[in-house]
# Entry
Amino acid sequence: MKMKLLLPLLLTLIAAMPAQAEDFLEGQHYFQVFRERPPTDPARVEVDEFFWYACPHCYNLEPHIKGWLKNKPEHVDFTRVPAMFERDNVIMHAKTFYALESMGVDWAVHEAIFEAMHERHRRLNTQQEVESLLEEQGVDVAAYRKAMKGFSVNVKANQAKDMAQDFEISGVPTLVVGGKYRTRSFDGPKMVELLEFLIAKVAAEQAAEGN
# Structure
């Protein structure tokens, strides 16, 4: 019943979106993914951001995503997914993300990794270099090393790799909305506009399917 009541509202919201949103075209600005992942809850919209610490475009997008998250719609779930390209440093960075996540480390530490790479030109291509930075940030390096070897970090890294394959992620930053639509990479404001457009589109489609 709730889905039936929600559908007209969502369709109205899409119709009322700014004219610039109407310029977002499938096959040009966003693409349907190869293997769709159905939502866990059709009343919610899942957003996955694929990123890599060393990517300058990801770094430039970060403040826009951070700003958007402050007013994120209640029905949207947002998850960051580290890139798992077949390079040792990329895989190490992905596992570092999950290791820090498992330790409950504040997002400010992730921001410090971004800043070290892009503002202070520290490449952080080895785990030892990452450990030096983490130690500077007050992170328990022994706990980090243990987490890096942990079962859960390896499982999450493999899941990230599977997601990237299903969604055909070939570059970052890329957003996947509803497990269905993959964005091209755009500058911050346009990426946020596209994200909001796709959230409304997916919400309406999920409501229609549950009607």
In short: The longest strand covers residues 45-51. Strands lie at 30-32, 45-51, 76-82, 174-177, 181-183. The helical segments are 2-15, 56-70, 88-102, 107-118, 127-136, 141-148, 151-166, 188-209.
